[in-house]
Amino acid sequence: MQEIKHFFFDMDDTLYDQMEPFRLSLIREGMWTDKEWAEFDRLFKRVRHHSDELWDDYVAGKMTLEETRRLRLILAFAEYDIQVSDELADRLQLAYEEEQRVIQPSAGIVPLLEAIRARGHDIGIITNGPVAHQTRKIEALGVRQFANEGWVFVSDALGMAKPDPRLFAEVNRRTGTKPENCIYIGDNWRNDVVGSCESGWSCVWLNNRGRQPESHHRPTHEVRTIEDMARKLLGMGALAVLAVLAAGFLAFL
After folding, report:
1. What is the pLDDT of residues 65-82, one digit of tens each?
2. Which of 68, 124, 164, 213 could form a disulfide with 151 if both were Cys (CB 3.0 to 4.6 A apart)?
3. pTM confidence score
């Protein structure tokens, strides 16, 4: 295998826990206030499922972004025999966006990014979605400082979206990198695993929600936690990785 020099990360549900602002948005609107975390998690998986299913229609211009966001909630709640009106779906989406303004990186992400930079490697971010919306989340997370200048890519700005291999090829072109030297880290099988594998990149699948593979593609590594991710990316033992994540990159140096 070629040397990995360039580390590209997905953002949503990879750099932060996307379910938490979703859970808080429902509570904020007085919904599911009596539910356990696991029930929110199951509902969130269904929302993500419908979002993925509707994404192609959005990219193709068959649905507006507002219609896509509205319908994914309506379809997910319908599976629980809960009728959600267009108005309620719009309120939930607005609450969700408000909660995303104060998101924080998942525990261990910042030390991991610091450790990758300390080794002299490049870091980039590739995320699907509207430019303004995704940019706000990137700024809230405070992760732009770890990325190379000009290495943050938002699908709507490129005019193409994951899993389209053309997007990964365009990233290679703009960054002057080769596919065999790139690794992509993401949680979504369809967008992240399929897209990067078909582009000749290595791939780490952060399977943090216990999903099943959806195709014949084989990620380079499958991990369940940030600690597992760091172990694979840094090639370090468990104790050394824990030291890095607990104390930051100075422990690594």
Report:
1. 999 999 999 999 999 999
2. 124
3. 0.88
